[in-house]
Amino acid sequence: MIIKLQAQINFLSEFRLKKLQSNIVHQSYLKSYITKTHLTTFMKITSILLLALISLTRTVLAADYELTEHNIKWTGSMPSQTHYGLLTPSTFEIDIDDSGKVEKLHVVLDMNSLNVTDLKEGKMRNKLTKHLLSDDFLNAKGYPTSEFELSSHDSGKLVGTITIRGIEKDIALPVEVTGDASNGWILEGSFDFDRQDFGVSYQNSGFLGAAKDKLIRDLVTMDIRLVVEPKS
């Protein structure tokens, strides 16, 4: 009787042990399955988010635009009078992203396009234009172009380098950008630069020229309005 009882106890113990082992194996498999499932789901979600991010990034990439209108006005003055006129770009390259941030801007101005618009056509106007383009000031023959090259667009300013008479200087131009990617953008701003920094002064007129130069305001004002539209 005792032997049979002991045998039953051993059988039950063995059965419970096998069941326990089976449960452990099942739980281990279940845990592994859940882990794999979670990993697969995580990878799918990550892929979807990555695709969405790429798609979003594409919508704000810089796009190519062309210049359709421009008004680049210069103003110089002295105590007795003020003169102003216009300049024309010979090269213009710009990229703007969908948020209105200028990613690229390279402008080359044709200095020989300089004109004087505050005077009527005639002898006085032609004389002043010729003098401004001469060696005394812009030396358009030796330096036929002036340039602006953008390095960054931050806090409402186009930061870059400006080159006049072959002299390069860092500059930050306050410019307002309005519009949208579909219809185009308008860039408007006004700034001053010191002509003495670029040697835009009486260069070859001796003592008399130096005396006259002191009567001219050093700061030249530039008022700019540029309209760009998407390239077709």
Task: Explain how this protein is built.
The protein has 232 residues and is an alpha+beta fold. The chain folds into 2 domains: 1-59; 63-230, Lipocalin (Beta Barrel), CATH 2.40.128.110. 33% of the residues lie in helices and 44% in strands. It has helices spanning 2-59, 123-133, 206-213; strands at residues 63-78, 81-96, 102-116, 145-154, 157-164, 167-180, 184-194, 219-230. A hairpin with a 2-residue loop joins β1 (63-78) and β2.
Tell me the layout of helices and strands.
Elements: H1 2-59, E1 63-78, E2 81-96, E3 102-116, H2 123-133, E4 145-154, E5 157-164, E6 167-180, E7 184-194, H3 206-213, E8 219-230
Brief summary of the model shown:
This protein has 232 residues and is α+β, with helices and mostly antiparallel strands. 33% of the residues lie in helices and 44% in strands.
CATH class of the largest domain: Mainly Beta
User: How much is the radius of gyration in Å?
Assistant: 37 Å
What is the overall silhouette? elongated
The SS-based structural class is alpha+beta
Number of separate domains? 2
Distance between the termini: 102 Å
CATH topology of the largest domain: Lipocalin
CATH superfamily of the largest domain: Lipid/polyisoprenoid-binding, YceI-like
CATH-defined architecture of the largest domain: Beta Barrel
Helix content: 25-40%
| Tally of DSSP β-strands | 8
The strands making up the biggest β-sheet line up spatially as 1-2-3-4-5-6-7-8
**How do the helices and strands follow one another from N- to C-terminus?**
HEEEHEEEEHE
Main sheet specs: 8 strands, antiparallel, barrel
In terms of DSSP E residues, the strand content is 35-45%
Q: Which stretches of 5+ consecutive residues score pLDDT under 50?
A: 53-60
Helical run tally: 3
Whole-number average pLDDT? 82
